[in-house]
Amino acid sequence: MAPTVRSLIGESITVVVQAVSSVAPLADESRQLKLLIDNVSDHAIYLLDTQGNICSWNRGCERVKGYTAEAVIGKHVGLFYTPEDQQLGVPQQALAYARDHGRFVGEGWRVRCTGERFRAGEVIEPVREDGCLLGFVKVTQDVTERYQAQRLLQDAQRAHVQQRQLDNVGRLTRGLAHEFNNLLTTIGNALDLIALRPDADNRTQELVDLAQAAADRGSLLTRQLLAFSADQTLVREPVVVQEFLRDALPVLRRACPAGIEVQLELTADLPPIVTDGVQLHSAVLNLVLNSAEAMPQGGTVTITAEVEQRLAPDLSQPMRRHYVAIAVTDEGDGMPPDIAERASEPFFTTKEVGKGSGLGLSQVFGFVSQCDGFVDVQTAPGRGTTVRLLLPVIEEVEHV
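Given the sequence above, the corresponding structure tokens read:
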């Protein structure tokens, strides 16, 4: 029995020694902190000196930002900011705020070593000892996925609210359009009978022609109202967007005044959509003419088309769908937010009296809504305007 007991005691002593040896390094607080920071892989945690130069670099830094420690130690933290933010002095402003207020919390676009931009959430806190500023500790997390999800949800919410507003106005517009169309039919028939009278002189014929032109204009307004109220009958058929836009390009160019260039930038192999080709042509033409009017001194109207996955506006049952996004972009002055919000309202226009009905964008919104799509307007003063028609691809929707 003695050898067996001695061997058991020896093994126990060995285990205890090994356990003490493994725990001993963790008893050192500085080593604990180093191990903790080095083993955090989804957050970039690093120290800066008082000027903002990088003093330390953990494994999370390399994963989030892509740089090795050797590549960044000693360099200024502004290295990770976009050129626009660097010119505005955003890195220095963040450090100054943290120094003066005890903490800075923010979010913005940052740049990896590959040049790729990502959305970053960051916290900067000053490091002090006996009231003396020694530097800063900065924690950065890649929040790109969360940011994109929030943007998708906001877009869907905005489209949903917009759709409800359009539905309310559309019901009123639909009734008015049908009544107005009945009146125009009566006027048109009366003009036809007057024109057939054998004793009508030239002056009478001129007046009849003027009245007929006005009636035709009223008929066009009626069709635009019906398009806005989504009460028009669509002739749905498969449309290959690349071919459609290439075929429409000559007409779009001829419709624009001198000094306006229209160009296409299309993604290859776009999936087909089912829509009314005539109404789609009218919608794109409306957008191109609006863009041309926004550039009285001349410029370029760019039409692009690509596939996007977005949340459908129906928030009662959120779902992701693939859309073909047809975008019309101009280089004009853009619109302030209050004007952009009203752009889809019927009869709202910034043009002079007699130079626009205010139904162009309303017609576009109504048509796209009738196709189960939606419209996204991106504009800002001095940055031009992009109007994107998002028309659903034929596919099974994915519920989320």
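Residues 237 and 325 are 18 Å apart (CA to CA). Try to locate this feature in the token string yourself.
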